[in-house]
């Protein structure tokens, strides 16, 4: 055995969690290549260079590691590029791996949630391209009758098998979720178009509470007269975890409306809640 081979530290599976790594490939000799998950989900930090306030541009590339897999390499990369996240991550490392898995998963979710939305240069417009239109339409049909993302995936599989339609293959619950986000985004955009229309000079908000599978939601509707027709549109069901206070709900609405339609304050003439008597 050559001295270089003896010195090569093999990759340890436990390091994927210890150092937030993911194996991306294994070559014919069994040598692996791993990537940094912080790079993947957050990008690298902007590094101050200190020359007359000049900043080095944020690097978008992902750090890959190949042998030898010495832990100091990960540590020095994480400290240099992801100092804040790395500190936070290490604090989670005790006592279980579950918490760290959760952290990575969370980052995954956020990244996946907006994967289909591409921001156009310079203007704040997002575009989405759906390649499998039939699959998208059918998936949204399933979701619209109340199927969960997982059930939608199962139903799609059955439809594919029964009709021998290969176009319907490849759906999973994460894609079903992304499709639904696209639909919700388009619906919200349509609502904004209505609210911003010249015929709409005022609007009112109506709040209501509901419960779905033990989870409380604050339902928000908007009412407006659009081209002579009264519209009553469902805006959002905001989950209420532990705080139901008026201030909390108020803040949620303001945050939501600011993000949705920044001119809402000028058109608002009333806010109401429905009170049911048993
Ligand atoms: Zn990294």
From TrEMBL:
Organism: Sphagnum troendelagicum
UniProt-recorded name of the protein: Uncharacterized protein
Domain of life: Eukaryota
